[in-house]
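Researcher: I'm preparing a figure for a lab meeting and need a structural model of a single chain. I don't have an experimental structure, so a prediction will have to do for now. The sequence is pasted below. Please return the structure as tokens so I can convert it later.
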Amino acid sequence: MIVMDAKTILAVFTHPDDEIGCVGTLSNHASRGDNVILAWMTYGEMTSFFGDMKSDAIGAEREEHGKKVGGIIGCRTLFLGHPDTNVQPTREASLKMASLITEIKPDAVITWNSRTRHPDHRGTRQIVFDGLVFARLPKLVAPAQPHRVEMPIFQYFEERTHYPTTYVDITGSIEKVLSVVEFYANFYGWEGAVGRVKSSRQASGIECGCQYAEKFNRIARSSEWRRYIV
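Model: Understood. Here is the structure written out token by token.
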């Protein structure tokens, strides 16, 4: 199906499973016919679940994880090759992100919040924001065309922020959310994860008046809830 006015959504996180907080939103857009790209900065290779597995083998397994999750959502997935526990907001990393942004040309971006506890998560968020700035500058991204669209940026929800809250109705995508959670729960051995996530999404839905919802801090002036983010 060709959607003439399809939007492009870019979600950037640090480790595989970080995307659980926006699976419903990404699935909404993929089901609508939008172009959805889910990117991870690292393979999450420092997790103890891999033991002494070699880095090449970890990468291969994580690529399979990405294909599984991308298949559930209906999106493209990619890994950006940063080392786990060393995601640093350097100029080089921001230029690499700018290159991705000029290639994809997103209409909206989803990423971590600057208030998150994990330093890799904070680094990811800063690289995304700096990459968006660099992507606007012709001399930095040449020969690619700069991407100068004024797009909404959605951060994972945190209470301690002055940015307004946006609710996304994911009622039609809740089964995909739970499928992704179940996949990771089986891998990591998370007991009760599916039920907890379902209850969390239901609680967010109650807050905004729908059955299930995901919520974000949107860098904008007003609060709202919607089914699609653009």
